[in-house]
Amino acid sequence: MAEEEKEKSQNLYYWGGDIEEQDYYTQQGIKGSSSFFTSPRGLKLFTRSWLPQNPNNPPRALIFMIHGYGNDISWTFQATPIFLAQNGYACFALDLQGHGRSDGLKAFVPSVDLVVEDCLSFFNFIKNQNPQFQKLGLEKIPKFLFGESMGGAISLLIHLSDQKGFDGAVLVAPMCRISEKLKPRWPIPQILTQFAKFFPTLAVVPTEDLMPKSVRVEEKKLVADRNPMRYRGKPRLGTVVELLRVTEYLSLRLKEVKIPLMVVHGSGDVVTDPQVSLALVEEAKSEDKCIKIYDGMMHSLLFGESDENVEIVRNDILSWLNHRGLRF
């Protein structure tokens, strides 16, 4: 594919495929933009923003969003920040290392700790360098984290790294601890760890494609599968070992979570375990915390369910954000 055609294909989104993104954003009554951000370790990371249409009014809050494993911020993911921007929230996100249009071998995450640093660097850049928000009085605008699946784990790690930097967090089907039902049995983790020392990038971990297990609606499975940025290969050894390490680390620090917290999860999720989300909310020391378990819903709560179900989850999240924003 020629470079010009490749670039064009990245601008065609699931909402029809025959409209340019800026025209679509205008139709939706928001302002959208994209750019590249260079992290302190020199990675070129693709970023997006979705803002309320009126630049003279302060947003209700800034929402810093983190996608899940194998996903990116330019296809089905952005339906949620578009919805939030329509309701007065300024949203920002980046493709993580090895995902989407950011630098790195596809789906290879050798260090989640460094990914956390990348995210914090970009989020702090938005907080400290954006002249629009400085003019509007940034210190008065609440700031929330928002993470889906693996992004939920990264959101918690960001909070633990910067406990005063954010005013709340929304976690969607978070991968914050490996369920005992899903955790590989001894000696598989030990074997993976040894092999990963020598062949970390090998995409050989035997798992099924998670997309069909995440998305309920058949038509939406077809849409998700069209995403040119979606990773379709087997998980890489180094990534799997790192995620096992990070979730084990998080499971030991859940009692240190103090941020106002909303967790949403589907009872029919077989990718991440809703019982683990219940344990997270129970163990977290947050004074303000809640969880909603949606009966029968699957992993992709904000895209893969029926439009009616997606609307239910969206509005629950919006209600929670609106209520917290009133406190500031």
From TrEMBL:
It holds the Pfam family Hydrolase_4. InterPro entries: AB_hydrolase_fold, Hydrolase_4, MAG_DAG_Lipase. Residues 58-303 form the Serine aminopeptidase S33 domain. Transmembrane segments: none annotated. This is Serine aminopeptidase S33 domain-containing protein. It comes from Cannabis sativa (Hemp). The lineage of its organism: Eukaryota, Viridiplantae, Streptophyta, Embryophyta, Tracheophyta.
